[in-house]
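[09:14] KT: can someone run the structure on this one? pasting the chain below
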Amino acid sequence: MSETTEDRDAGPETPEPRRSHLPVLLAVLAAVLVLALAVLVPVVVGRVRASLDPAAPANLDAVRVFEGLHNDHTDSDVDYPTSPPVGGPHDPQWLDCGVYDAPVRNENAVHDLEHGTVWISYRPGLDEADVGTLTRALPDNGILAPYDDLPASVVITVWGRQLRLTGADDPRLEMFLAGFSDGHTAPEPFASCAGGIDEADADEGTTRI
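[09:31] RB: done, structure tokens below
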């Protein structure tokens, strides 16, 4: 087949230019960046605001309340549902007020709670300075002693009420004392813990401070 004049004038076929994917890639990256900023910016702003806002004032919202506690006397050991106990059946003899350097018997201490006593417990090994802070805060009608397997660094208890504290410097300690140390939650709020047995005499491992 002979070549026509039109074919000769057209010359060789020019290939189409190759399309670049760069604009598409840049658009995708921009969309991802916008989405990431939309998620992260509110989080960062919230954290900054939280760091700048003043801390919420301390309150007693975390006080645990226990109702319907029996106050029968028993010579037997009692399996209390809370640790430390907040009330319930207890020994006929109560514990004398004061500061002890070893755990005291639950059944005697619960009798103190019945009398409106404040019982402050702390984990064994608490810093001496913190123990000193607790000692100074302890009211006359109060008992302070270490307590094994305590659920918090410091726990303060009266009959039917209990608060777990972050430490001796927790501002809620004074708030709890102001609200409950008068013994108004106890069956015998004015009986006092004075004149009770001295566990230091009954247990060679316990001494009064």
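[09:33] KT: thanks! The two ends are 123 Å apart (CA to CA).
[09:34] RB: yep, looked fine to me
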